[in-house]
Every structure is written in C-alpha cells, then in structure tokens.
C-alpha cells in the first residue's frame, strides 16, 4: 500500500483504489467534504488524534475526534491506519524542548524510558492499551493498521535513541496484538535518507513490514516537492537484511 501526501503528478492511472491511501487532516471531520478521489485507506496523522491530543493527563482520554474518524471510515468503507506520535508535555522527558516540530517536548521520549531502552515505559504502555481497547470496542469503524511512530529518524518528530524506539515498538506490538490479534503492525516510519544501518537491523528483527517516507524531488539537487509513503516495504527492500 502507498499513501500520498502531496506528491507531484497525482495518482497513477490504472492503479486500483484499494492500493492507494491518503493522509487525512482534522478538517475532514469538521468542515471539509470527503475527497472525491477514490482510495482504499486513510492514514491518521495531523488528524487531531495524536498521543498528545488524546491523552490529556495520566489516565485521562478524549476520544471525540477518533470516534468521528472511525465513523467516517466506516461510512466510506476505507481501512484506517493510525500513526502514533507527539509525546504529551506531561509525559515528555524534555517538556520545554522547542526544537520539536509540533509542540515543546512532543518529539522527545517519555520520561519513564531510559536512553538504553530500560525503564517502565508505563506512560506509553498505558496509552497504547487505552487506544487499542477503545478501538476494539468501537461500534463503527476500526483501526486495521498501526504505525508505531511518525518519521522516527527525523529529529523534529523524534529525538529518541534506537534503543528507546525499539523498546516502544516492542511494547506497542505486544499490547496491540494481545488486544486485537488481527491487527497489522507497521514499524516506526522513517525517512529513507535518514535510515541508519543500526536502526534497520533492529527494526527488521521485529517487523515484517517497514513503514517509510520517500521525499520526491524533480531532480536530485532540488528541494523536496512532496513526499510519498510506502507502508509495505520488507526488511530486504530497505536493506535491513541481505537479499
């Protein structure tokens, strides 16, 4: 499956809608019409349902926006991919970090997860448990795909170490599949240009599907003009294991 943000040239003709997905932002559930372009899945990012949007304080959750998205997905018969990201300030290890791209502290690991991946990681586990349980109990649509973090190798969205990233991915995978064995788990997404060998090796141990971001440039020397996301690359395709 490929999702499209704002890639140049639009969709390629002849590709079935089931193979295409779309990033969808918060306006779709508040004021904008559903897109007329056919597609088979929506990706929830910048959709007012990130960790910090939903988990307002320890044990406090606001499911309003997520429930609207799941109802929309059910109405239009599309699959839903949920992307984790944006640490709440109350849970952040660096809540005043202004280098984060969305809000201070949102790109930093939780404050109960150590640099080497040890620690309780309870803030994260509690949220993953809550959202997976809420999804299972939804009376409308359901999240089918779970992307563990948005652009995990990109500092404005994530500053955690490889060990922290892998620990969060391991914990999320175990929790989600324990609640919903039919769920499909995707690795934390990464920008291909920032993919390190260490990260690839570690993620490949746990995920048969690597979520990636590929920046689109009219030529190799120009700034990015858009980006496409491939959500079903295998560890071999990204060079994490030998072909």
Describe the structure.
The protein is α/β, with parallel strands linked by helices and 243 residues long. The chain has one domain (37-233): Alpha-Beta Barrel (TIM Barrel), CATH 3.20.20. It contains 5 helices and 11 strands. It has helices at 51-54, 64-76, 122-136, 162-179, 197-204; strands at residues 2-4, 20-24, 41-44, 55-57, 60-61, 79-83, 143-147, 184-186, 190-191, 210-216, 226-233. The strands form 2 sheets. Strands 8-7-6-3-2-1-11-10-9 form a 9-stranded mixed beta sheet, covered by helices on one side. A two-stranded antiparallel sheet has the order 4-5. β9 (190-191), α5 (197-204) and β10 (210-216) form a beta-alpha-beta unit.
Strand order of the largest sheet: 8-7-6-3-2-1-11-10-9
- Backbone CA Rg: 17 Å
* Cα distance spanning the termini: 21 Å
Strand content: 15-25%
The CATH homologous superfamily: Glycosidases
The main sheet comes to:
9 strands, mixed
Secondary-structure element sequence?
EEEHEEHEHEHEEHEE
Number of domains: 1
Helix content: 10-25%
CATH topology: TIM Barrel
Number of continuous helical runs: 5
CATH class: Alpha Beta
How many strand units? 11
> Would you identify the regions where 5 or more consecutive residues have pLDDT less than 50?
1-12, 214-243
What form results from the Cα inertia axes? Answer: globular
CATH architecture title: Alpha-Beta Barrel
Structural class: alpha/beta
Descriptive key words:
9-stranded mixed sheet, 243 residues, TIM Barrel, two-stranded antiparallel sheet, single chain, alpha/beta, disordered C terminus, 24% helix
